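Hey, can you fold this one?
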Amino acid sequence: TVVAGGPDYWRAAWSTRHTTAAVLGAVALFGLLVSARQNATGGDALVSGLDVAALTLAALVGAVTLATYVPPVGVPAREHLTGGSCGIIPLAATLVAPVLLAQAPATLLPLAALVACYGVAAGKRITDHASC
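Sure. Predicted structure:
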C-alpha cells in the first residue's frame, strides 16, 4: 500500500520515469541558470566556483521538484496533479527563478535565495504534493 503523501509516498512511488525526468530537468535547469547568471554578470564567465556549486545544487533540487509532477505508474495524471493553485506554486517558482536570477545582481545573495527557494518548493512537493 502506498501512503497518501510525504517522503514515504515518494519512496514507494518513485520510478525510472521520475529519475529520467529529474536527470533531464537538472541538465535543462543548469543550462538555464548558467545562462541567467551570465546575463546578470554582463555576459562574463561565471564569477567563481561558488557560482557553479550553487547553480548545480539549485538545478538538482529544482529537477527533483519538477520530477514530482510526473504521475507515478498507474496513477492517472488528473488524480496526481490535484491541488489547484497550491500545486502550481512550486512549479512556477522553479520555472520563473531563472528569469529573476538574470535580473539579480552578480553577488552570492541571489544564489543563496535561489537555492532556498528551490528547497522550499521541493519540500512542499515532497511532503504534501497534493494540497496546501
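The chain has a mean pLDDT of 85. Let me know if you want another pass with a different chain boundary.
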